[in-house]
Predict the 3D structure of the following.
Amino acid sequence: MNRTKRIGLVGGLAAAAVAATPFAYLWVFQVANAKEPPTAEVRLDIAIWMAVFAMPAMLAAWLLWRAWWRRAGARLSALDGPGLLLAAATATLPGGRRDWGAAMAAELTQVRERAARWRFAAGCASAAVLPPGGNRAVVVVTGALAVAATTAAALVTGAALPAGRVFGLTFVGLVGGLATLMVARPRRAGEGGPGPAIAGLALAGVAGCVALTTWYLAEYPSYPRPSPPAVAVSLPPVTAVAQAVVLAGCLWLALRPPRWLAPDRLARRFGIAMAIALVGGFLLESRLIQPGLRPGGQGMAGYLFNGPLLVVLPGSVAAAVVGRSFRTGLGACVLALVLGAPLLVMAWLAEALPWYRQGRGLLLDGEGGLGVGANLGNAIWWSLIFLVLWALPIGVLGAAAGGAGTRLRRARKHAGPAPTS
């Protein structure tokens, strides 16, 4: 086995192990937070279920690594540290600057001294992240405005909304930093934008989440919990930071996706349809199906499992089949989750209040005894967990299944007719 194949095998195993790590943590979390010490049989049963749920994520991680390594492995396995740094930096370049990245890679091969190679690669990486040219004054002004907005957010929330200070400070700071980066790396002529539909959905989802989060924190900054008796904060600092990162990241990926993530036109159409269908199914379940059940008997946890199976999986398969490409199916899946995550959290927060007022408990599982503010943490963490650890892996598997037929046809075409004796 040569070096390229060996690194590819080790990398695939490492990717699968990393994908399994969150499920191992969930097993530890469930065992540690059980109301009664679980028996060995119960621990084994939980471990089996975690292994079952982890299989799609592990297979998806293996497939993604294999697809990427098949394309770039032979080139990257021959690079040293400076070469890998330069390759990683040039991978972030827009299409109009790819020739510059190739020229810098060729120039690096002429530098022999190791320290000089590192200096050259670091300089190129800096130029790739913050390219020269453009209006530096606009970048400075944008950065200054971002700092001023972050400071103002800290002061305003500290005075008017203390419960939302961490979220407001983190979110405004991240958006300001991304806006500064966007100005520093302007889109060149000929590079297409996300389109009005994607931009509108992304802005609506993020704005709705921010508005509803602000309302929850103003009305229900904390809530009582019966066991153990205490008063819990509706938006703890860790949850606030996680929500701010997710919202800012989804907004950035939707409005300015990197080159490796920018889907084609067909993937964009499927992604938009999948995001709308996923959130529409959530609203349909909460409004028409769940209200017919007994109060407190069931919540929306079942839809978090079944919704991706009904929407993301067939949607990714269809996108890959119609586009005749695994990459099209993958782009549709990722775009659907990027657009769907803020919309799903927004729908969760909007539906949780009527549920609670009807005496149906929390929207997640109908649990009673907790204040309505507990829905805020549930909406953020459970949506994130299921979308990342469940919906994304099965979407990758669906894209791989949809693109398998195209790969087989290409292989048969290149193989040609069998030789005759």
User: Anything to note?
Assistant: Residues 63 and 199 are 30 Å apart (CA to CA). Residues 258-415 form one domain. The mean pLDDT is 84. Residues 374-415 form the longest helix (42 residues).
